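Fold in tokens:
===
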Amino acid sequence: MSLPYKSLASFFLLFSFSTKGSTLGEPRVLWGALGRDVNLDIPNFQMSDVINEVRWEAEGRRVAQLKGKNQYRLNQTYEILPNGTLKIKHLERSLHNIYKVIIYNTSGTSVLDKEFHLRIQEMVSKPQISWDCSNKTLTCEVVNGTNPKLNLYQHGKYLMKGSGKIITYRWKKLTEAFSCTASNEVSEESDAVAVSCSGKRMNLFLIAGFCVGGGLLALSVALIICYTYKRKMRNGRRCEHTDHDTLSDFEPSCSKLPNGLAESPCSHRRGAGDKHPQNNHRGRGPKALPHPSPTSSKSVSLPPSPTT
């Protein structure tokens, strides 16, 4: 009597698991990106009716379990997908671990044991390319990323590589553009740039010209301010009357005011210690003639009258 087709298929599936998965061997290495999700897929495995339980452990502790239609998970970080894959969400560095899957059939027999070594890396950032025209050197650098590998190319031709976060290259020709690639096990980023030193020299000349021009302009403004200040001071002194008897030596700004108006701001003011009397002339009028003294007067003889 022949076995039913379904029973025969289950027999071959169980035989396959028994011969392949009973030994652990070396853990399979899987890489996950920090802050991202990762799936631990079971190679050469498909769910069937003879599978009763899929159990995932980390350091001997159960983190997720699928038994029949019931699912268990230690916390929201872990989830078992319908095909038995373990999904780990929002990877943190502390989740770096060796995970083990154990699959049981309906008889409670283990048909598959497999270990996965999960390693977590930070994704690399986009490389930054800079150069120094005076030294003819080009630098490629990445800020973020675990164990980045840098490769430098010129027009697709490989130039050099480095295992750190920065590499420096001394060029011979600038005929072609440079490109730099940063990568690790979980990510890859690249950037390209056409290096031009003539533009940088021109920029330096422009900056120097602006600096010199700005300095000359500031000096010119300072000289104009000083000249204006000195001229105002000089004009102020001209309105100070010293020992003149009249205002004949005054500037035109100190000209005579109409009668009845207030005294000019340029009017002479004398202190109590002045030796000469104050002159209150308001204009450029003639000097007052002194009265002749009696002693200095002279007689004037009249011409003789004509004889009749």
User: Anything to note?
Assistant: The mean pLDDT is 75.
